[in-house]
Write a structure and sequence with these properties.
4-stranded antiparallel beta sheet; globular
Length: 258
């Protein structure tokens, strides 16, 4: 069953001076219920712009985006967003950050605490409920951001290179954590990354984009058994998928330089 659909979506920017910039061109994409979909592509191909369109933060120039058949026209609580940058409120502690959307939505205090307790435990931050962002490491802050997004029980989780600013060891731990949480929640996920290993490890399907203007070049099925762990990265099947995706992106990067 299709959960999220992009139908011939085009995004064009019109600067005050200079020619219009075509960022995305005729992008069609479907994400099934409970699918972990990943988008990769050469730098500047419009991956983040595509995610912002789905989030309702930007309107497409042409085309339509639907969630459960309903057109996406603005941001909504049915889509949870996790950015690469640490978007926590610095004046709120961990619990209050996780409960922020629930409080805005009028959820009673007792229910908010029950929900935040669950997701703080889920991301491994028990004991840090009263800590403030400045007291947390980068990985811990992203755990809070993930817990905050999940606490609102979105239909789709949108993740824009959420581990891109982390060191390799912390990134690996966060990938493992996300895999565990996804196995429990079975949320529909649309995940942006420039890391091919990460894309294959996490995804059910990897959508490879062309150089700008961004289009869908190829859809690669990741037919690796779940549950998955980082030791999968050395398997022959994983390496074959990595070579295929690297080749597709390399070809686009070379084309963009000509």
């Amino acid at each position: 069953m299709t959960k999220l659909k992009l139908d011939k979506v085009t995004l064009e920017f019109f600067p005050r001076t200079g020619a219009p910039v075509l960022a995305l061109d005729d992008v069609s994409l479907e994400v099934a219920e409970q699918e972990f979909a990943v988008i990769v592509g050469p730098s500047g191909c419009g991956k983040s712009s595509l995610l912002r369109l789905v989030a309702g933060l930007v309107e497409p120039t042409r085309g339509e985006i639907t969630l459960d058949g309903t057109p996406v026209t603005r941001p909504g609580k049915d889509r949870g967003m996790v950015f690469q940058s640490y978007t926590l409120f610095p004046w709120l502690n961990v619990r209050d950050n996780v409960e922020f959307g629930l409080r805005i939505g009028g959820v009673p205090a007792e229910k908010r605490k029950h929900i935040s307790d669950h997701f703080i435990k889920e991301v491994g931050l028990e004991g840090f409920e009263s800590a403030y962002p400045k007291q947390l490491s980068g990985g811990m802050m992203q755990r809070v951001a993930l817990a905050r997004a999940l606490a609102n029980d979105p239909e789709v989780l949108l993740m824009d290179e959420p581990f891109g600013a982390l060191d390799s060891q912390t990134r690996s731990l966060m990938q493992e954590l996300l895999l565990q949480i996804w196995e429990h929640s079975q949320k529909t996920v649309l995940f942006i990354t420039h890391d091919i290993d990460e894309a294959i490890l996490l995804g059910d399907r990897v959508h490879v984009m062309t150089a700008r203007p961004g289009r869908i070049k190829e859809r690669v099925e990741i037919d690796l058994k779940r549950p998955r762990h980082v030791d999968l990265l050395t398997s022959p099947e994983f390496i074959a998928l990595k070579r295929r995706i690297m080749g597709l992106i390399h070809d686009e990067a070379v084309r963009a330089m000509r």
